[in-house]
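Support request, please re-run this one:
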Amino acid sequence: MVADVFYRMIGFTLFGLLGWGVGGAFSYGAGKLLLWGLLAGLLGATVMPYGARAFQRWLKAYMSEVSGYTLVSVMVGLMAGLLMALLFALPLSLLPGVAGRVVPAAAAIVMTYLGVSFMTARSQSLAAVFESRSRAQSYVPTLHGSVDSTRAIVDTSAIIDGRIADIGRAGFAPGTLVIPKFVLEELQYIADSSDDLRRQRGRRGLEMLNKLQKEAAVPVEIEDIDFRDVDGVDAKLIRMARDTGYPVVTNDFGLNRVAELQGVRVLNINQLATAVKPLIMPGEEVEIRIVQEGKESGQGVGFLDDGTMVVVEEGRRHLNNRIDVVVTRVLQTTVGRMIFAQLKNGVSRDKAAKG
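Re-run finished. Output below.
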């Protein structure tokens, strides 16, 4: 309400003066001038709040898309342009006739425009300078030239996976988890996808991120940083990791390989999960339920409690039954561990109970 009254006062004053000026241009009498000013003022008081609120909405939407570095660049360019215009104002005002009044004003407009344009074009360079100085202060080089950091950059796949929250609660997180702005934007893009599966994955990722921030088991920072000259989220993650020295937390096999090739340290959640699984050696006996057929003839497939796949030779005939098997081979793959086994005896536990 207070803002509306303020807008109406401004509208009444501005439009009233405009109406008075228009009436004076047509050489009306004092009464008609007053009437022109009053009518114009009432019109201004009516329309000004709507126009002001529309302008506020536009300005808010526009400013939300403008980075802080761009805004600072515009302000610096504006002040520099006005300063240059002030320096040229006095000599230009000495020009004869109308030129002495018009040229200084035109020069001020031109100088201001050039200053803002130049600084806006250099805003990315300004951002790079400040970001590099900030990153330089946030980590300390070790004797071997590497970086000893208590921060880690989390990529999209690790957020959607969700196990990073459990790792944080268990106290095994590397320290502060840094979520770059471009990762957050990718999560939002996936959450808005027309594909149901992708949309569910994106929303799960946003929920997990919200859960991480609320639980505060491990500090989470949203880093307002982007690399406009780099295409692709994976490439931006590697660029950020190389510039800051922070490791990347991921479960993306492709990103893992590319990052390692470029000398970036990677904390792979899948590798961590494999490392903490109980060690099973060939010759050990385990009890397992055959839940599906294997790829090869006669094979049956089951899973341990930790999700490790167990392929049982001649296990197909015991489908949906629990049996005792003997481990024959343990195969470590890039995606996890796989166990091969054979029947300890040809009778399943369920069948033996029936007998």
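The chain has four domains: 1-65, 75-138, 143-275, 285-354. Residues 143-275 form a domain with the Rossmann fold fold (CATH 3.40.50.1010).
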